[in-house]
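step: validate -> pass
step: tokenize input -> pass
step: predict -> running
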Amino acid sequence: MKNFELYVPTKLVFGEGEIKKLEELVPKDKKVLMLYGGGSIKKNGVYEQVTAALKNHTVVEFGGIEANPEYQTLLKALEVIKNENIEFMLAVGGGSVIDGTKFLSSAALYEGDTPWDILANRIRTYVGLPFGTVLTLPATGSEMNSGSVISRKETKEKLGMGGPGLFPQFSICDPTVIRTLPQRQIANGVADAYTHVMEQYLTYPADAFLQDRISEGILQTLIEIAPKVLADPNDYVAAANFMWSCTMALNGYIQKGVPTDWSVHMIAHELTAHYGIDHARTLAIILPSAYTKKFEQKKEKLAQYAEQVFNITEGSVEDKAKQAIEKTEAFFQSLGIKTRLSEYTDDYQGFGAKVAESLKAHGMIKLGEHRDITPEVAAEIVEMAY
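step: predict -> pass
step: emit ->
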């Protein structure tokens, strides 16, 4: 196991009816900017719960943050922060709204010429404008980590940022909010969380037994509850385990002391940036090809994954490893998620080369746990996913 430091300062408030605790969690002496997405919170009762809890606070609202938070939209929110002298932010939404709020947290105090530099130059944020969250869509784990991904349509870029100053002060996670979510979003949430675990777990053995057991437990839980939560989002037990699994998949715990990959995400971001495909679905497209391409380096951990998660005990290491990839792709497909790029667009020829060019432009020339996935290798992975 590698040396590590763990810093997760977010206070997590979990369970049905906990949104009312905003009254005490949000500081009353600060002007608050409430951020949300396309307005679904006004249809599912969350908006009413939040505004009722904040009736004694001074609140300014900003809606319209996209599913892939758009830089130009966030610049408009940044103007509101500065013009209204906002002192605290509350993100009410899924990972996109929370990611957008993290960008604003950094940009509000940034003294450079253009806030995009935070992303383009990978500037870490150590002090940001304070914020909390109310999670409405389990998926990204953004409610309990310090990472964020922002899109910019005009340049077809999707870049990440982070730093210890971007942890939410608190996050309220009420599993009942998923009752009104479309099945597509629930399926995406399951696939997103599943892949988050795989990026941290499916590398090579590192003698980190507890991290492996937690990772395998999250994967097994997602496999177990996926059909239940898709069939009946009102099933509180399934919903609660779904939401907590998504949070645990990316709150920092399972990545400590182990090698991590993240090449699947970096490559998949290019599919969203160019085609607008849902983030979770781009992960399902890229992951099987990435593991097939790097089979020799990953086969030992793939075999372990086959044994521990899918109970595949027969055959050689190679046999089990191959079955693990097949089982993973089949799981994504069981969620109603297509796993080939050609199932989403006819305009895919030559896209591998475009991905290579984009990765080079962003300095992403050594991806993966071994830092050996070059832009050229990434192009091959994309072409294998056609």
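step: describe -> The chain has a mean pLDDT of 97.
step: cleanup -> pass
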